[in-house]
Amino acid sequence: MDIRPYTIAIPDEELADLRDRLARTRWPAALTEDWARGTPVPYAQRLARYWLDDYDWRAEEARLNRLPQFLAEVDGQPIHGLHVRSADDGAVPLLLLHGYPSCFVEFAGIAPLLAEPGQGGAADAATPAFHVVAPSMPGFGFSTPLTSHGWDIARTAQAFDELMQALGYDRYAVFGEDVGAGVSEQLCLDAGDRVLGSIAATDPGAIATAYTPPTDHLTDDERERHDRLKDARTEDFGYLALQTSRPLSIAYGLTDSPIAQATWIVEKFQEWTDPRAGLPEDAVDLDALLTLVTVTWFGRGGDGAANMLYEAAHAQAAWGRQHDRPQGMAAFGEEPLMERILNPDGHLAFWREHPRGGHFPAMEAPDELVGDIRAYFARLLAV
Fold first, then answer.
1. CA 208 to CA 229: how far, in whole Å?
2. Which residue, of 64, 218, 262, 382, is most buried by count of CB atoms within 10 Å of its CB?
3. CATH of segment(s) 3-382
4. pTM listed for this prediction
5. What's 92's DSSP letter?
6. pLDDT tens-digit readout, 135-161
7. Cis link prior to 40 (omega < 30° from 0)?
């Protein structure tokens, strides 16, 4: 496999083009400040002004480039990501898998923490260090462009398994969230003993989807509460219905308009982060959020992400398959039904809940997530 070191170096002309497109945005009518219909125009206009006048891409580019990166070709597809090796040669290889609508940028803050736990001190059985590999999914971030159809969950899992072995990691741990949790589960099924164990992050939105596990054991009051959660989530699925049926219909706008790409992502941060945060920037750092958006823009990841969701929705699911890999879960957000639905019989090897946070824990609650990953794999390694 061809794996090369990678440094982000966006040409000046691409940065100038981004600024020009932002300055020439044609705006819809500003009828409301409410988020019920999507990102409100006044908020989007304030975000665009900040992006143009205050946000410093070159500073963010330099920050990202302080982390070692790679570019590989796997099954004909470019795969880009972080590869942060620990100073401890015996550290545990750890594959971090993001969800939608994210990319490797989400893990830029926690990768160094995981590589050197204890503020750079020596790792021990209670605070294992990790060799961190954080690729962007095919079609996301700089793992672009998609070179062929068929990049569903199973093919992505196979590619990442091959990537980890090519990097010299015959056995490795996995963390996944959202789509990444699906890839993590597929790795447990297909890679077998090469996976030491997996841990997933979840939030209340995960129990309000069509893929929720059986709920026959819930009480009448719990079932009523679950129905309310599902009803509240119904209008949130417009993005999914479009991308899993007509991904090209949205890909044109996301590829041509930076404000379309920004509002498409920022809306999900508004809806899926901790509900106590009034605005996306109250839940996550605004510059970090715009860096995720800007990487997606430069990589044309809106197109790739839409098409990957389409592939995942149209692939044959591996229902009924089981594996013996240990699994843990870190839950973010106050919702008692999460454990009742996702771990009703205590079958998971690890379960921990946090009252704050949401769909993007690496950005919302990084210390809690790092602590959970470390605690879970310390427990597994001690067995």
1. 6
2. 262
3. 3.40.50.1820
4. 0.96
5. E
6. 999 999 999 999 999 999 999 999 999
7. no
